[in-house]
Specification:
The protein has three domains: 211 residues, FAD/NAD(P)-binding domain (3-Layer(bba) Sandwich), CATH 3.50.50.60; 107 residues, 3-Layer(bba) Sandwich (FAD/NAD(P)-binding domain), CATH 3.50.50; 113 residues, FAD/NAD-linked reductase, C-terminal dimerisation domain (Enolase-like, domain 1, 2-Layer Sandwich), CATH 3.30.390.30. Helix 1 runs parallel beside helix 4, helix 1 runs parallel beside helix 8 and helix 3 packs across helix 4. The strands form five sheets. Strands 1, 2, 3, 4, 5, 6 and 17 form a seven-stranded mixed sheet that branches. It contains 13 helices and 22 strands. It is of the alpha/beta class and 462 residues long. The structure holds nicotinamide-adenine-dinucleotide. Nicotinamide-adenine-dinucleotide binds next to helix 6 and strand 18. Nicotinamide-adenine-dinucleotide (NAD) binds next to helix 6 and strand 18.
Length: 462
């Protein structure tokens, strides 16, 4: 019997945010579309092992923190008792499962078939799908590669222990280790370090550069650093881990310049790598970048192969779900012959810690490094009525604008809710608003959103 061969207009490889956004838009545009995913479902790393489960756990951490803070105004809930089974069940079924079912029903409603299996390119118009014994082929007019990224490891360090976790394993909450070593002071190290520390672990964080969240303006990082300094047992900057060794039920870590220390578990969070290997891309004309092995795309998400597009983490930094989603829509429209380009200037970034840090567009340090003439306006939340009512006066909002035109080039925010507040800033940057536009827009009082207006006013007066 011959292979089962399907002919489709669009085959999307990978069912994460980039892939499903592309597929849904293709279907809306009337193109017959299938999604191929090894996990046999839509959602990808974001839904099953990233953004969504981590935010569910961070919500639990924030409830615990708020309950603890309530003592300040005379409300004592007592010591929390945490049951891991119901917590895991809630995260898995009520949060992740609910959203996964939602995506499956949208796919069904739009006529997008989800094919389970590993897709490998045989040439520029055929994908072989490997799923156990079954071999199926899909011939396509266009393909969109959206295979995302996976956690990167520590080169040279042995990791053959279930006590040494990547973010995927840590999100399963195998237990609450008494002593947890977090390697990497980026997004994941800080977010999951916060979760485990709030649930009761003694967390030691090791970061190889001289500050947390390298690349982010220091005045935004400072309030978070102060907070994690009290939450974590230790933070070692400019420190590398040179060896990890399982000793009985412990992991011994050699910390450069500090000697050996023992932990019950280790979380490695030192960045993610694009999943561009093993896809058969060498059988197509798709090209990878020399540095990082990302798929090269133009502003319409086209690769060097005229039939193949690529979106999301596999195409480069920043590896964020919302960038992938926008690119997915661009690729769908571009292959349908519509005028579309991924030409966004503001891609907001949010670290969902307590306090949250969010930014978009140009940072202050970045502007200075590039020698750009910018004016900076700042508003400390100590002067915000709303922040005072929340007992959270440790925030800061800053606006960067072009010194001559006044055009808003970037915004940075640290404080609770920064992740929601950054949306207005992204709109201002994307639509080339002036600092004056932001300053003269009435913002509801008392809200934290006033801080953006106040920062813009400060910039105009500066
Ligand atoms: P990251 O790039 O944010 O941070 C990695 C950190 O590890 C850096 O600070 C780096 O200096 C440090 N590091 C690297 N090698 C090290 C070593 N040997 N020893 C000690 N420190 C070392 O990476 P991440 O936290 O793993 O997250 C990966 C990506 O996932 C992020 O870049 C982001 O795109 C995405 N992500 C986003 C969110 C969000 O949007 N809230 C959350 C989690 C992850």
């Amino acid at each position: 019997m011959g292979d089962l061969v399907d002919e489709v207009e669009v085959a999307v490889l990978g069912g994460g945010p980039g892939g499903y956004s592309a597929a849904f838009r293709c279907a809306e545009l009337g193109l017959e579309t299938v999604v191929i995913d090894a996990a046999h479902r839509l959602g990808g790393a974001c839904l099953f092992e990233g953004c969504i489960p981590s935010k569910a756990l961070l919500h639990v951490a924030s409830v615990l923190n708020e309950a603890g803070r309530a003592k300040e105004f005379g409300v004592d809930f007592g010591e929390p008792r945490i049951s891991l089974d119901p917590l895991r069940k809630w995260k898995q079924e009520r949060v992740v499962g609910k959203l996964a079912r939602g995506l499956a029903s949208v796919a069904k409603a739009r006529g997008v078939e989800v094919i389970g299996g590993r897709g490998v390119f045989e040439d520029s118009s055929t994908l072989r799908i490997e799923a156990g014994e079954t071999l199926r082929k899909v011939r396509f007019k266009h393909a969109i590669v959206a295979t995302g990224s996976r956690p990167g490891g520590l080169p040279g360090l042995t990791q053959a222990s279930e006590r040494i976790m990547d973010s995927t394993a840590a999100l399963d909450l195998p237990d609450i280790p008494e002593r947890l070593l977090v390697i990497g002071g980026g997004y994941i190290g800080l977010e999951l370090g916060t979760v485990y520390a709030t649930l009761g672990s003694r967390v030691t964080l090791v970061e190889m550069t001289n500050g947390l969240l390298p690349g982010v303006d220091r005045d935004l990082v400072q309030p978070l650093h102060r907070r994690v300094n009290t939450l974590f047992t230790a933070i070692h900057l400019e420190t590398r881990v040179t060896a990890l060794r399982e000793v009985g039920s412990e992991i011994e870590a050699a910390l450069e310049g500090r000697g050996g220390e023992r932990f019950d578990r280790v979380l490695v969070a030192v960045g993610r790598r694009p999943q561009s290997d093993g896809l058969g891309l060498e059988a197509t004309r798709v090209r990878l970048t020399e540095h990082g092995r990302f798929v090269q795309v133009d502003e319409r998400c086209r690769t060097e192969d005229p039939r193949i597009y690529a979106v999301g983490d596999i195409t480069g930094e920043p590896m964020l779900a919302h960038r992938a989603m926008r690119q997915g829509k661009v690729a769908a429209e571009a292959l349908a012959g519509r005028p579309a380009a991924f030409d966004n200037v503001a891609i907001p970034a949010v670290v969902f810690t307590d306090p949250e840090i969010a930014w978009c567009g140009l940072g202050e340090a970045q502007a200075r490094d590039q020698g750009l003439p910018v004016k900076v306006g700042k508003f400390q939340w100590a002067a915000s009525g709303r922040a005072a009512t929340l007992g959270r006066s440790d925030g800061l909002t800053k606006v960067m604008a072009d010194a001559s035109s006044g055009r808003v080039l970037g915004v940075g925010i640290v404080g609770p809710g920064a992740g929601e507040l950054i949306a207005e800033a992204a709109l201002a940057v994307e639509t080339a608003a002036l600092a004056e536009d932001v300053a003269l827009t009435i913002h509801a009082h008392p809200t934290l959103s006033e801080s953006l207006m106040e920062a813009a006013e400060h910039l105009l007066g500066a």
